[in-house]
Every structure is written in C-alpha cells, then in structure tokens.
Design goal:
87 residues; mainly alpha; 0% strand
Length: 87
C-alpha cells in the first residue's frame, strides 16, 4: 500500500514539474521575442535594463543560428533510433 502512495506522490510531483516548465516556456517566449525583435523598434529607454536589451545585437541572431543545429540534432536522433531499431 505504501508503494502505491509513493507512486501517486511521484506522479503528482512529475505533473507539477511538467506544468511549471510549460508555464515557464509560455512566459519566456514573449520575453525572447521582445528582446530579439520588438525592442529594436522602440525609442531609446531611460531604464538601464531595457536600454541594454535594446542595444543588444546577439539575441536577434540566436534563433536563425539555432535552427540549423536543431535540424542536425533531430536528424541524428532519428538516424540513431533507426539504427537501434534495426540492429
């Protein structure tokens, strides 16, 4: 009986972590879009944090440079799974 309760608690913890990561992703995506694209179109801000984001020139290259690496990683994952299944 105690093992079942442990599994239920572990399942609840996993579900809570999953929901946390999904919410974190939904919250961080608009922040990334603002930092990479939208902030460049606004006038210079007097807030030092916002001004630093506006002057930054690295995040606007992050997504275009990450997509080819993601494509290679997904392709290698697919290839390794194919080789594993047919070995």
């Amino acid at each position: 009986m105690m093992a079942r309760n442990g599994l239920k608690n572990a399942s609840k913890v996993d579900r809570t972590r999953s929901i946390f990561f999904i919410i974190f992703g939904f919250m961080s995506f608009p922040l990334f879009v603002y930092a990479a694209i939208v902030s460049k179109f606004f006038l210079e801000s007097s807030n030092p944090v916002v001004a630093a984001i506006q002057r930054d020139r690295y995040y606007c290259f992050l997504l275009p440079l990450t997509l080819p690496i993601l494509f290679v990683a997904v392709h290698l994952y697919w290839l390794s799974m194919k080789l594993f299944k047919h070995a």
